[in-house]
Every structure is written in structure tokens, then in C-alpha cells.
Amino acid sequence: MATTIYDVVIVGTGATGGMAAKVLAEHGLQTLLLESGPSISSADFLTHSMPYEFPFRGSGSPSKARRVGRAAASERTPFVGYHAENDQHPYSFPEGNPWAWSHSRILGGRTLHWGRQSLRLAEYDFKGASIDGQGVDWPFTYSDLEPYYDKVEEYIGVQGMYEGLPQIPDGKFFPPFAFNCYEHLMKKAAHKMGWHLTALRTAQLSRAHRGRPACHYCGSCGSGCDIGAFFSTIAVTLPDALATGNLKLQTDSVVRHVLIDKEGRPKGVGYHDRLTKNYREVFAKVVVLAGSTLESTRIMLNSTSPRYPNGLANSSGVLGHYLTDHISVGNISGALPDLVGGTILNEDGKSNGSYIPRFQNIDKPHPDFVRGYGIMVKGGASSFPGQAMSFDGFGAAYKRKIKALHPAMVNVYARGEPLPVYGSYIEIDRNLVDHWGIPSLHIHYKRTDNDEKIRKHAYESMLELMHTAKLEILSARDTLSTPGTINHEMGTARMGHDPKTNVLDAYNQAHDAKNLFVVDASCWPSSGCQNPTLTMLAIAWRASDYLAEQYRKGEL
Question: How far is Cα 411 from Cα 172, in angstroms, rounded to an integer?
């Protein structure tokens, strides 16, 4: 039987893999989409389950949590790969320098449970090095990506407020979710300090769109959306890609490496069947990696050959380097006096909060640090009174206090931009393999002095905000998050014009192999402080349009 050779094979079905599949299939390319984990549909989700329905109130048994990890043990998402199991997907890091890697190995990847925050990067995020001398600029500008931001927002549906702020450029928004009581009060406090507080822009429908219903505020987004009201691959991009007739979806395919021909060109991928572990190969004229930052670079590092002894497309020697993850600074919780003892409403239904955009290094340089941070403001009555853990008590009086504080709670933390450095990198751990015998990653990550300076300034700013709002502070900590915790890993196969210092060009095409594209966040030269997924989707759409154009011209 003749071997099938696809036009394109895509590895990964998360945000960027799903977008690449949609765009390339709509361009008419015969596309194979590989997913390492099992299939799933929205009908499988336990979206509206309650804690009392589970033996461990949804958290999972302690013994399972020790084996597979706390997230993977959840009873509310009892699906293989919804959160990758630690015992099947091991990785390592230097002693005393941890990296917390939480990823997914299932159809749709982390789009099944992402935070949905959808903020554009600003012009100076793309040109940070020209402004402060740190790192490198992106190889394109905001104006180059702006048309794709527009396309993505109009396609997936993003709700938000128009603010006219350069640090979070306005886009194509649906009407915003209404503010809760605490948000009106915190907005007043922020205004007194000269800051803007706006609704978090989220890929979560405030009205019906393209056959998808509006959010009904159940507040269970982390368990998967059973109606498709927030963006995910399985609700949005995958159905459109399959509808073209040009896409074949293949799940349970754990990619080991990219196959290389005698001329050093990628010709497909080798993978293991997830269930049997049997090794197989598929072939395509173009290979697109979209497995997430760490997984795509892991595949490239494992794709060695005489042409690429140190990993595929790594003549620059920077593959694996310049790893970043957003920093989360501190956490301060308190109660707004005007709301203590008020009516308890369903205020966590929209499952997000408000945002104070970056206000540092905008008009003039800050004397202590470069780049900056935004502040997340969340609160109101939720399904579980988390404030109960903040103070001691017992009995009826304790319960009354918890109930009185429940509608008045506010929680703030900062999300900052780290500086990418060469010394933050990933490499193959030759002494550790995963469940399929594929060599795993060893992750090195270095905090910088700039991170520490951002931490100090952000914590002081958050304290000032809470005092201005006259909150009773119940708990406060000023620490930085463990690297990796935010799940916004970026870098390791960065893009740039110079092939001597970058892995990819401005269209996500490998400098060393013209028929290899890497469209996830591994391409990022720097991170900004905004959540990355909206920009990832825009970049993947742009790269896929370019790929299709080059394919038609016979350049690939």
C-alpha cells in the first residue's frame, strides 16, 4: 500500500495547533493533526457537579495526588491527560531550583481549562530592547500583528471595555460583563491613585456568537465548559477545521521526534501509540510544531541527526534557551467594610475579575527596574469561603464571621514580566524517560535582580491600593511564584532575523529548515506582562497564512 504523504502534519491540539489546523485546512492543504492524549467532547465534562457528589469533595484521594499530582487527581476532571500525570510525564530540575510544570495531554490541551484572559501586547512590548537595552526586539511590530488580533477576537469572541490605553490596546470586543459591587469600590480606589481599573478581557461570550451560546455564569470554567461559551479548540477551531474535509485528526499519538531526510529536511514525525506504545511514522511535506513551549522544544532537542547533532534547527545553539514564565507577585486578601454582612450573591459566576494595567515604564523610565506588571483584582462571594482559612475560630460565632465576610472579600496579586536570559534553559535529561521511553526534560531557570525589584514595587503598590480602599487586610504575602506556576512558559525557540542568534524567522519558519514551523509560545523573544494566549493565536494564524502562501508558490 502506498505511503500517504500529507501536505502538513501538525503536532499538538492546544490553542495554536487548533488555530493552525483551522487556517491551513481552510487554505485547502491536506492536513494531519496529531494529539498525544485521548479524545474528549464537551458532553464528557462534569461542569455542574457539586463538591458533595465526590468522595473527596472533588479534590481526589491523597494517594492518587501523590502519584499523579494534585491537579491530575481531581475528581471533577477525571479524564486522562486533562492535567498531565506526573508518573507518566516526569521531568527534572536542579536541586533547590524548582520548576512547576503543569500541562495537558488531551484533545484541546490547556484550552479546556485556561483562564481565558485575552490582552493584546503593546507596541513597546515588541520593542522592549530598543527602549531599555534588555534582551532583543521582536522581528515584527504591533502594526504587523494588529490585523490578526482583529481576526482572532472577532472569531473567538472576546468581551471587554474600551479604555484607550496604549499598554493594553483596544480590540474588537463584545459587551463586557457587568462589574460586581467590590469592583465598583476598587475602581474608585484605583482612580484616587491615578490608575485605571478595567474588566479583565476574556475569551468568554457575553452574547451568543457563531452558534455558541453566551456564558450562563455557572463559575465552573476549570472543569470544562459544556456549552462552549469560552474559547477552546474542541468548541471553536477544530469543528471548523474538520468541516473543510481537509483535516484528519489522530489522537493517542505521542510524538517522539521529527524525521529528517538525507538532505536534512523534515519529512514527518515518529510517534508512539499512547495505549500500546508501538512506534509508527507519518510523513508530510511540512511539519508544524504546536505542542506547547516545552514539548515542542523537547521534540526538537530529541530530533538529532548527523546534520543536527544538538537538536533540529539548532545551528545557532540557542534552542532551549531564553525560557521565561510570567512572575506572580504576592497575594493580599481583605474585606471591604461597606460590604461586610451584605447579601450573598452569585458573584463568581463570570469566573474572572478586574485588572489594573501596567503603569510603570510607560511615559518615563522607572529608576529601579525595567518592564513592569499589572495587578489582578478579584473578589466577591464565591462557591467556597476561602477566607475561612485566614483566621482561627470554632462554632457558631466563627461561622457567622465567615458568612459576614463572604460578600466583602477582595484578593489582589500582580503579574509581572521576567527578563529572558540565556542561563534559563531546557535540555534533555539522558537519565530520565517518560512512559513511552522518550527522553525527558531537565529544566534550569534563573530569577533576575529585576524580578526581585518588580516584586518589591508591586507588593508596596498592592498594599497602597488596599489601604486606599480601606480594606481590613486578613492575609498578605510578598513572595514570588515558583517558576512555571503561572503556566505561561515562553521562549526556548525564539524568533528573530539573524539565524546566528535565533531559531525561527519572523513567520515562525526555522532558519535551518524551511519546511519546519513552530507556532506556539516557544517562539517568543520576550513575554510582556499580559497573558499570552491571544497573542499566540494571532501569531499562529499569521504564520499559517504565510505557510499556505509559501506552499502554493512551491517554496516549501
Answer: 29
Alpha-carbon 342 to chain mean position: 36
Cβ-based burial of 418 (10 A; exposed 0-12, middle 13-18, buried ≥19) = buried
Would you state the pLDDT for residue 1? 62
Q: Percent of the chain at pLDDT above 90?
A: 90
Taking the C-alpha atoms of residue 121 and residue 16, their distance in angstroms, rounded to an integer, is 17
- Complete domains list, the chain, with CATH: 160-200+328-416+448-482 (3.30.410)
Would the pLDDT of 103 be above 90? yes
Stretch (H or E) spanning 473:
strand 472-480
Closest listed residue to residue 26, CA positions, set 554, 541, 550: 541
Q: How far apart are CA 129 and CA 399, in angstroms?
A: 53
- The 3-state DSSP class for residue 61 equals coil
CB 545 within 8 A of CB 507: no
Flag whether pLDDT at 326 surpasses 70: yes
HSE-CB for 207 with a 13 A CA cutoff? 6
Contact 331, 411 (CB under 8 A): yes
Task: For residue range 336-379, list pLDDT tens digits in order.
Answer: 999 999 988 877 777 678 999 999 999 899 999 999 999 999 99
The alpha carbons of the chain give a radius of gyration, in whole angstroms, of 23
DSSP string, 455-466: HHHHHHHHHHHH
DSSP state of 501: T
Distance from C-alpha of 454 to C-alpha of 417, rounded to nearest angstrom? 9
* 309 close to 394: Cβ distance less than 8 angstroms: no
How many C-alpha atoms does 350 have within 13 Å on its Cβ side? 26
**Mean pLDDT, the chain, as a whole number?**
95
Instruction: Report pLDDT digits (tens) over 119-176.
Output: 999 999 999 999 999 999 999 999 999 999 999 999 999 999 999 999 999 999 999 9
**Which amino acid would we find at residue 113?**
H
How many residues would you count in the chain?
A: 556
Output the pTM of the full model: 0.97
Q: How far are the Cα atoms of 67, 357, 417 from residue 328, in angstroms, in the given order?
A: 27, 14, 9
3-state DSSP assignment of residue 299: helix
